[in-house]
Amino acid sequence: MKPAVLAALLLVSTLTHAQAPQHVHVVSDDAFSDMQSPQQNERIATVVRAVDELRRQGRLPQATLQAETMDLAWPLLPTGRFNQFDYHGTSNFVDHGPPYPGPIQDYNCGTRSYNLPSGYNHAGTDYYLWPFPWSMMDEGQVQIVAAAPGVIVGKDDGNFDRNCSLSGSASPNIVYVLQDDGLTAIYMHMRNGSVTTQAVGTRVAAGDYLGLVGSSGSSTGPHLHFELRDAAGAVVDPRNGQCNAAPERWIVFQPYEDPHIDTLSTHSAEPVLVGCGVDSNGNAVAETPNYKDEFTPGDEMWVFASYRDQRNGQITHFSITRPDATPFAQWDFDLASQNNPNPFYSGSSVDWKFTLPTNAPIGVWMVTALFQGQTYTRTFTVGLSLPPWLPRLPRPPRQHPRM
Ligand SMILES: [Zn+2]
Asked: Measured between alpha carbons, how far is residue 201 from residues 42, 133, 152 in Å?
């Protein structure tokens, strides 16, 4: 047998064909949602009306920007504790449809929103932490920042922040900013104790810290509910589409479906997920990611990936390569293989289990995922401890969440 043929056979025989995923998780429609009770709605309206009165009295800046101006910057910012590609999914847009039980209608004439028997039509956009919302919240990985310049005109803090249900009586931690464009922006469900110490009346610039993502108030999981109201208290949807004639207000366009890999990582054991941030005894709980990026030959190793806006038929090509760049494993993943009830999910995650051979080559290995034309890579080591002055996980190039 020719050496080249022998080498090729050896390569094939040592290439691990990944088994089916161990666990695929998809975000249910109501996992990151919220409700405004009539009382909370009245509280919001009271703040907005008070703002309007102050402005009439000349005690606040007049609206300075044209209504058509696209003036909203991205309202979330990862902190130094964050080292993945992205950190969020978008669960719900504004519902423009008639009240319950009328049909849902988001700005794009789709159904990525909801209404409730209480008469509440979802009034904002929900950005949730993903894929480990409770531990990401506990670690303060994502802060909420002002989307546009303005003046803080109201804020509440001190409320419990691990809610997992729509309860009309729970109060949110919240910041209201009267923007220079004349709209009032509402940032809701913040972590307890995280609300900005800036006093009401303080001017903020776009990007200024307002709080941390939490699940305070009537909320089913850690997310930011971002809402705009005009001076009359009417809800304004900042996304322009066939079912919303109001102008587009985001500086960076956010596609209706925005398929991306949020995280790609290696682990010592399967990540442990939790449905709610409190257990049945009322104790705080969070996910256990089991991150690990330094292995020894013979170790068990898990590869975990999380997505936002994943649709059946969008195939991801995964590979694991040895230090000499030869393939250790390669496989494809398509959410369609899971026979889920829906063809599309705003958030999803999947993991696979491998065993590194006892003769695994020492050095730096790489996991790569190719999804929707973008390549995502992470490195891990086998039999090698990186010197302490090197970053534990090489930080991937930052991608704007909506590029
Ligand atoms: Zn919401």
From this structure: 21, 32, 5
